[in-house]
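Why run this: before we spend reagent on co-expression, it is cheaper to look at a predicted model of the complex and decide which construct boundaries make sense. The entries below are exactly what would go into the expression plan.
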Amino acid sequence: MQNKFRGVMQSPVTPLKDDFSLDLPTFERLLDFHVRAGAPAISWPHHKGESLNLTIDERKQFAEAAVKVVAGRVPVTIHVSALAVEDTMALARHAQDIGADGILAITPYFWTPTLEAIEAYFTRLCTSIDLPVLSYNSPSYLAGVEITGALMAHLIEKLPNFVGVKEASFNSEKFLEISRAALALRPNFAMLTGVEFLLPSVPLGGVGSYSAAGSICPNLCTELFDSCVAGEWPRARELQFKMTRLWHLFKDQYPSSLKGGMVIMGRPVGPTRAPLPTATPERQAYIRAQLGDLGILESEPHGW
Amino acid sequence: MTFEPGLVHTPLTPFSSDRRVDFDVYAKSIDFHVRHGADALAVPMHCGESVSLTDAERRQVITFAVEQAAKRVPVIAHVSDAGTAIAASLAKHAQAAGTAAIVATTPYYWTPPPAMVLEHFCQIGAAVDIPFFVLNAPEDMAGSRINTDFALKLIDKLPNFAGVVDASLDWQFMIELLSDAGRVRPTFSLISGTDLMVSAAAIGAGGQFSALATVAPRLVRGLFDLCRQQKLFEARALQEEIAALRQIVKPGGVAALKTAVRVMGRDFGNPRPPLLPLDAAAEKKLAAEIEALQSLVAEPHGW
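The model came back. Tokens follow.
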């Protein structure tokens, strides 16, 4: 059976009003935009959605809104990673209660947990709910903490609802060590890259990614995925190079620049919460020039 | 200035029991690589214990490799050193000896400012007029690595800077490098510095430096050929076999590689100090793991 988490899945940013409070109407519009623009699944709130700058209550409120607005058109997963693991547990139960299709959780923040502690964490999380659980591996942002291939295999063997990984090392060896361990045990385990690095991952068993730039260029996301799955490598290479230029444009102070770019695409979503900066008019002008240079202004939808 | 080396084997350096370079075995090794799928050779790389050879020995190894290869395949000389003038001098020697290209990584031990690293590479590259490749190997070099901006500066200064041999395995770097450098120097090459070839080939790497070819030349050649034909889905199974071999050997480094190749019937002796050979228990365990690999059944045993 094919895993339902595949393709370039969209994780919306979190729209804010000028006073930095949550902007629910714009969030609803954004969710609808992503679904109409071809997102195969929605997941919120990733770091791109300023997850760690939202209160737990805010996260619950918008999680409910996401499930309600998407209304079964595509699967919705909730990113439950929080500084306190007890909050993560509560967000996971909440996701199940509101009817989400799955959750996503990173290895715990700050404490640089051992492999044993990571195993205990995912075991507790997976056995506390019935929903599918996607793990999130991001060694470069978490001081080298990572899920090894051996640990991934062990978790798959004991947890039936441990169904995939958002793999964000963007490294041939790390991806391959996880993919060959995981896919041997669970052939439909979802090997997903953190952002759209599809060209180097799809040949090794990757089935999709989350998206950095999807609120700017949904068409490019779809074309890149389709060309990789079809094995059209020269075309895929050209699209991947373009996508990577966008990643470099947006990853600086992520997601501030992304929100700045959304203004240019006619989909303004307000400022970014501190400590992250909000894109200045000068930064927006730079982004506009880059998007123009890449042909994005012509090839991608403007407005909602 | 271009040079597409294809599949580059990186031979081990054999030592006799009194720790001298064993040139009789080295000759057999060069012949073995030429007969078993090498498009080119690179000597002496880190797996060939370059850093443990004296300057005179490195010169001798390079000259010997060129003579033994006898134009059957081109030879690339690895000339990395701590001192810029020492590396540049070795590069000159390599060209005079008849190598087709040179390769060098960031200076050993020192952590100079980026402008001096640039100067280091410029002087090495300018010492020759054969193609010059930069080896990006942060795992070997305590995290020292180059980035794309650095490569662009080097392209600007050095006409024979032909490409990067990448062992960082970093997708962001490889894509950005090939995308940006390719725009200013269309002949610029990305070469995989490891046997993890599929992702690099997807990104556009045309060549591969292989340390595992000394153990499993058929597997490595099979993987490389599929990658060159852009049969990347088909390459996955071989890539996984090679990754399994890599994970067995990697923790023990050169000592483990020498043990693995001894199991295959090719004895390179022990590594030179300060590296120690595996202890008896580790050697036995590794030998058992190598013998258990079904993927190695069809590989050549002996010379």
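Residues 255 and 276 of chain B are 7 Å apart (CA to CA). Strands of chain B lie at 7-9, 40-43, 75-78, 101-104, 132-136, 161-166, 189-192, 207-210. Bring this page to Monday's planning discussion.
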